[in-house]
Structure formats: structure tokens, C-alpha cells
Design goal:
This protein has 77 residues and is an alpha+beta fold. It contains two helices and four strands, in the order βαβββα. Strand 3 and strand 4 form a beta hairpin. The longest helix has 20 residues.
Length: 77
Amino acid sequence: MKIERRSLLQNSFGLLGVCLMKDLCAAWVVDDRITVLKFADGHYSFKDHSTGNEPSEKLKTEILQNIEVKNEKENRH
């Protein structure tokens, strides 16, 4: 699973518009097709741009676990 953290100023998948509307804390793009947004209140938003829908609950859980592992590795360096 390829996970890339996005700058909150990048306009990838319209992130800039979302930043202006909500308290966005972090954003990732998974496998070049799924956008994951984390908001200040702790909730996440998912969108699979290949289907226009949210991914399955199983895939969401897997993505969040991979993001957590990736963040832990980055924080150690």
C-alpha cells in the first residue's frame, strides 16, 4: 500500500478547498486514488476517486493502521 502525506497547501484532489472549510489537520493519498483527510476533532474522511465512493470499512481500517505505522516510523527519525 503506497501512502503519501500531502501538504495542506497542495491542491491535490481539491484539498485547499477543504482546508478553507474545515479544521483539516492532515491529508494522505493512498495508492494514487484514495484521499484520507484527518480533521481537528479526530474524525477521518475517505474518498476513493476511482469509484467516487468511500472505501469499505475493512479497507479504511487497513489504511488507518498503515498510516499509524508510517507516522511512528517518521517520528523516530
